[in-house]
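Please produce the structure of this protein holding EPU.
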Amino acid sequence: MLEVARIVGGRRLSGTVQAAGAKNAALPLLAASLLTSEAVTLRNVPDLSDVRFMAEILRHQGATVTNPAPGTWVIHAQEITHRTPYDLVRKMRASVCLLGALVGRLHQAEMAIPGGCVIGPRPIDLHLKGLEALGCVVAVEGGVVSVDATRARGSLVFMGGPMGSTVLGTANLVMAATLTPGETRIECAAREPEVVDLCALLLKMGADIRGHGTEVITIKGVDRLRGTEHTVIPDRIEAGTYLVAGAITGGDVTVTGAEAAHLGSFLDKLREAGVGVETGPGFIRAFGRPTRAVDIITEPYPGFPTDLQAQFMALQLLVDGRSTVTEKVYPHRFMHAAELQRMGAEIAIDGATAAVYGDRPLSGAPVMASDLRASAALILAALTAKGETWVQRLYHLDRGYERFEERLRSLGAEIERLPASAMPKGFAED
Ligand code: EPU
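Below is the modeled complex.
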């Protein structure tokens, strides 16, 4: 059933929310559990459609996957297959991170190549180049990539591309290298906390990895990995989204269980915009409205995260003057701008830069979510808009935010989830 969110703007949000586990850490961790024939237990896994879908793929690969308690998943991959078909991969681009796990464990993989998506083309050339540098034989035919790693040996791999490092490309290479003989040195490795969390799990499984969290990761191949238990890091993007929700309404929101050290560039920009920010062990608080126009440039970690760009744009709409957003990770990731314009925003896009002319009155409208972060941004803007906003295609939101509207409501927002049929006549899509 298609669902929509109905938001009535104008409420000031205040209170506390607990950060959930990070989606973008959990997905590669689930994939990594295929690297051992023993059971891996993951805790603090967020309850998201992407996670349930990854569990389905792991089952397809032959693993036994159970969810014995909320947030806990046990993966036991005694015997698995190396083939992953298109009808699974096409539904979730992140399933590409199975590639490294299959190559590591089975020394062969056959996976349909995921397509691009609405945030832009999403090639996997760097993933494949990295595997080739390890000595894998890689072939692409009929939309399927085949990797033969029987002769793979550790080596020097440069993973930089036109946009800098690649997150899942690095994750794939690290996973493959853990069970590849010899020493692999990955240069221009992604430094994202989610990559560090993956390495933390792999270390517990018996891998030999150094340098994670820096641009150079060194991995010495081991013969086998073992089962273990691991707790997923908090979701920095989700935490950032709730902090924007507080600031955008001139409220006072604290996210507990969040890691301020993972959000340095974002918190810096919030402060620059005039929002009060307080951090301490396991919490981040944002209070007061933004008062100054600020420019942001998205970049790989520790730069400003592209996954908080759309939400931050919603905040820039409140401030008098011209703010800019420059996308250096996904130069076309501005689908939300057109929908924000339907609410009265003035945004001009020129290539990879959007100029936001703030302090225009926003009014509620029917809008369409195009992707996960765009859907969050539209809801955030709706919190400040006059009147009623209907956000359609809510399934995008459910890929990455656990009980979003319920938690916004607990902070004082007027938001409800309804069947699409509840929309006023003429608003709903066909
Ligand atoms: N790129 C290439 N070639 C490659 C791989 C990437 O040119 O082989 C380019 C991409 O087209 C993009 C840039 O490099 O322009 C960075 O892409 P990256 O590979 O780092 O992205 P990803 O690993 O596929 C993860 C997150 C995304 C997040 C990006 C960037 C997961 C499951 N996904 O994707 O999350 O935007 O890193 O930080 O970890 C989201 O959660 O909404 C989301 C899209």
